Amino acid sequence: MSMTDTSSVAGNSNASDAVSGEEDISEERFLALVDELRAATPSLSPIGGGVLVALRLGISDDTRTFSRTLGIEHALVLREVTELAEIGLLRIVDRKQRSQKASFALTDISTALLARTSLGGA
Fold it and tell me: Where is the composition biased (Polar residues) (predicted)?
């Protein structure tokens, strides 16, 4: 599923909650922020951009919540989070052996990338 595929996100039963974290944000605004981040960082995948934006906005800080909230297979999210950690854009702070759920945090590098977008002041 592509993060830019609005119909897929809207088809999720949690679509109205898909982009509500500490501040209410519409699905369209969330996707626009992901697109903005990806424009500034072309190598970033749609899921990777979504993970970073969701983390910055307080929507999710673990793979299971992100997966459920946006209707993306957990295995895909795990793979993306692992790749983001390998290139220094995320720090994995906890991993549950049984469920494979990984909790993560931004790094200085990802914080700097996000600061160059309209999320800089979020």
Answer: 1-17
- Euclidean distance between CA atoms 83 and 88, whole angstroms: 9
What lies within 8 Å, CB to CB, of 45 at 6+ separation is: 80
- In what helix (H) or strand (E) does residue 115 lie, and over which residues does it extend? helix 108-115
Total domains in the chain come to 1
Taking CB atoms within 8 Å and a gap of at least 24, the contacts of 38-44 are 40/113, 40/116, 40/117, 41/113
Count of CB atoms within 10 A of residue 121's CB?
6
Q: In sequence order, what are the residues at sequence separation of 6 or more whose Cβ sits closer than 8 angstroms to the Cβ of residue 49?
A: 3, 34, 35, 37, 38, 41
pLDDT digits (tens, 9 = 90+) for 2-49: 333 333 333 343 433 334 344 578 999 999 999 999 999 999 999 999
63 within 8 A of 101, measured Cβ to Cβ: yes
What's the CATH number where 74 sits? 1.10.10.10
